[in-house]
Amino acid sequence: MATHHTHPAITRRPLAQASLLARTIFVTGATSLLAGCGRDAAANTIPASAESRVPVRVTSLTGGDDAGRGRIEVTGTLAGKEEVALAFKIGGVISRITVNAGEPVRAGQVLAELRPTEIAAQVATAREAQAKAERDLTRVQTLYTDSVATLEQLQDARTGREVAANAVRAAQFNAEYAAIRAPGAGVVLSRTAEPGQVIEPGRSVLVVRRSGRGMVVRIGLPDRDAVRIHLGDPATVTFDAMPGRHYAARVTQRAAIASAGAGDYGVEVTLEEGTTALPTGLVARVALAPAAAPSRTAAHVLVPIAALVDADADSAAVFVLGADRATVTRRAVRLADVTEALHDAMVPVISGLDGRETVVTAGVTRLVDGAKVTVVTTATQRATTDAAPAWKAAP
Questions:
Q1: Cα–Cα distance for residue pair 309/366, rounded to 1 Å
Q2: What is the C-alpha separation between 234 and 335, in angstroms, rounded?
Q3: Domain segments of the chain: what residues?
Q4: Contact 180, 92 (CB under 8 A)
Q5: Any idea what the Cα angle at residue 26 is, between residues 22 and 30, rounded to 5°?
Q6: What is the dihedral of CA 97, 101, 102, 105, to 10 degrees?
Q7: Is the dihedral of CA 142, 145, 148, 154 positive or negative?
Q8: Rounded distance between C-alpha atoms, residue 289 and residue 275, angstroms
Q9: Which numeric CATH code is attached to 45-69+296-387?
């Protein structure tokens, strides 16, 4: 067999080059792998190139307490604090109704009456019975003095007189409530009966809203919001029927138990004085500003949830815009209550920020520590930012 010999210089050089190439690929791959896996552990310290600026949107933080945290917005219905349904205590035929819906009334004004024939007869009958009881008692007392009537008969006569007197008082009371009078100054909200109608006891004839107790908006809050509300908390009320007008208000009542149906807690918000002319039933939008909870620290910084990256339990990070407004720095923060972000969209931060920073809220997934950015402000720039593809290094 023929043997072929190759010059040593020719064989060693390609092998050395291959070995060098393999070592280069291995080191490069290992470096890339370590950089990718250590991205979070090293706090994203890979700087972006100066040529590739990332478009971002930013917001300025506000330090302070939790009083401004988590504003609650809910829809309710406007009503008078005291709206009274007025009815006759006894049944009968309505003689007259002197007012219509929307008309003002004064305290004590007669608003409706029953025909007096029946109730007048009842009063007269009760008085006649009282007079007879008085005569019977006088006669029995005389007979008892002459030892003709017994003590028991005398006691029965006295009881009969008291029963008759009570019957007169009851008949007079019913006669008094055969007329409906206004409980106070206000306005008639509704009228549900007409003269000549036979009406049963207790059925509503008129509804009057008293003006002295003010106007309220009644709303229902879920438990997570109801526990944050306290009496005296400020609120702002607006109405769809009157755009552009805002009414100051305060929380004046909160239910101590959830409703049986919806399971929410009833809350009343009382509007400032001077709103009694507003009609009952307006759809109201209420913005509540809960006071700080007593158990919370008073020096939290509020951060939009959109600004957080790598959140884990009570730790997370944000990208802070530098003074040059062209570079961002990744900063670790500690959160006070992550669960609040589920419905507040704002998270209180305990440490890592002082409230004077400007943080990135859009484009965070494309950032690393030290990245160059362009802050977008126009609508066109925002559209470009929102449409830009998002990426994040693999772990």
A1: 11
A2: 27
A3: 45-69+296-387, 72-82+213-288, 117-177
A4: no
A5: 175
A6: 30
A7: positive
A8: 21
A9: 2.40.420.20
Joined together, the tokens standing for residue 376 give: 């977008």
Q: Using the predicted structure, report yes or no on whether residue 22 has a pLDDT greater than 50.
A: no
pLDDT band at 9 (very low <50, low <70, confident <90, very high): very low
Instruction: Enter the pTM of the model.
Output: 0.50
- Per-residue tokens: 329: 């720095």
To which CATH superfamily is domain 72-82+213-288 assigned?
Answer: Efflux pump adaptor protein, beta barrel domain (2.40.30.170)
Cβ-defined contacts of 122-130 (< 8 Å, 24+): 122/171, 122/174, 122/175, 123/168, 123/171, 123/172, 123/175, 125/171, 126/164, 126/167, 126/168, 126/170, 126/171, 126/172, 127/168, 127/171, 129/164, 129/167, 129/168, 130/161, 130/164, 130/165, 130/167, 130/168
CA atoms of 97 and 5, how far apart (whole Å): 130
> 131 in helix, strand or coil?
helix
Residue 269 near residue 76, CB atoms below 8 Å: yes
- What is the fold of 117-177? Helix Hairpins (1.10.287)
Q: Please name the residues in contact with 266: beta carbons below 8 A apart, sequence gap of 6 or more.
A: 218, 219, 220, 253, 254, 255, 259
- Hey, which residues does 87 pair with through a beta bridge? 204
What is the structure's pLDDT at 6?
43
